[in-house]
Amino acid sequence: MTIETNPTEAFAGQVVSDVAAALSGVMTSLGHKLGLYKTMAGAGALSPVELAQKASLEPRYVLEWLNNQTAGGYVIYDAETGTYEMPDAHIPVLADEDSPVFLVPALEVAASLWHDEEKLQHAFRTGDGIAWGDHNERLFCGSEALFKPGYKANLVSEWIGACGDLKQLLGRGAKIADIGCGHGASAIVLAKAFPNSTVYGFDSHIRSIETAWKRSSEDSELENLQFVVATAKNFPGADFDLVCYMDCLHDMGDPAGAAKHAYQALRPGGRVLLVEPAAADRVEDNINPVSRLYYAASTGVCTPCSRSQEVGTALGAQAGPQRLSELLSKAGFRNVRVAARTPFNIILEAQKA
Hints:
The chain has 353 residues and is α/β, with parallel strands linked by helices. It has two domains: 7-94, Orthogonal Bundle (Arc Repressor Mutant, subunit A), CATH 1.10.10.10; 106-351, 3-Layer(aba) Sandwich (Rossmann fold), CATH 3.40.50.150. It contains 14 helices and nine strands. Strands 5-4-3-6-7-9-8 form a seven-stranded mixed beta sheet, sandwiched between helices. The protein has a two-stranded antiparallel ribbon with strand order 1-2. It starts with 6 loop residues before the first helix and ends with a strand.
């Protein structure tokens, strides 16, 4: 059998590609942190020396990095001129930090899992969990940087905009709870978009709330925003018009209990906006690169996080719309529906009776 038709050789080739991608992820991170992608963005064809001079870096390292990027298809090499160019189509993914498809921060999440590998081995052997705050700190900043552009681009115009008159209600003035707010990226977007509303960001991770306060203090316009250390089952307040969960419900030990508490905290007619990783309901329909990424994150972060808390439901990052809808319905919500989708997220809306 030839290499092309030998299943073992073919699979070995797949693993070689995966290892190459893992190693090249470090190169991608370096390209971001050293400003190489931003320097190449829109600059046309550059020689290694020209790029090194523009980025104030050593040419020999830049040459080797460029060849790695060429082999991976991130940049294009012109053999006749010996120059390298980054296609314009790659700029939103590699160089534009405000783009909803800026994906470089995902590598920080991956790096955190390498740091936490021994903890994950222990979790596999014992069934114990790993609390969010016990992960390597690169997870926290990486998650914020990865999710923030999507929230800025989609949260108000696309996701809330897909929920009937919700955008108009929030514009007039409402009371909003952002549960599991982390560093406050989504809460800040909400507070800026709806200055007549009051936004409360709740998170059980003290260091994240401290960072959220720091982020918001840098903007004098955010007087309608508060951050409070609280869990999804004990956050204070009542008569909320909107309760949001941004990529966090599946991380909770008791998502059903969280949904019930949200139901109690909402005013009659109040709504839940649930943003979760994109997924279908069946494993066989989740065999794709995005789900592969999310299953890895679910194994390394989401499931251990849930198992570290009471109940430990371990909903997982690929729960799918059916399970999520059933969870909200059992908590008492009505009119549960998928309001919007992106390549990376599924957005559900539900209403209190």
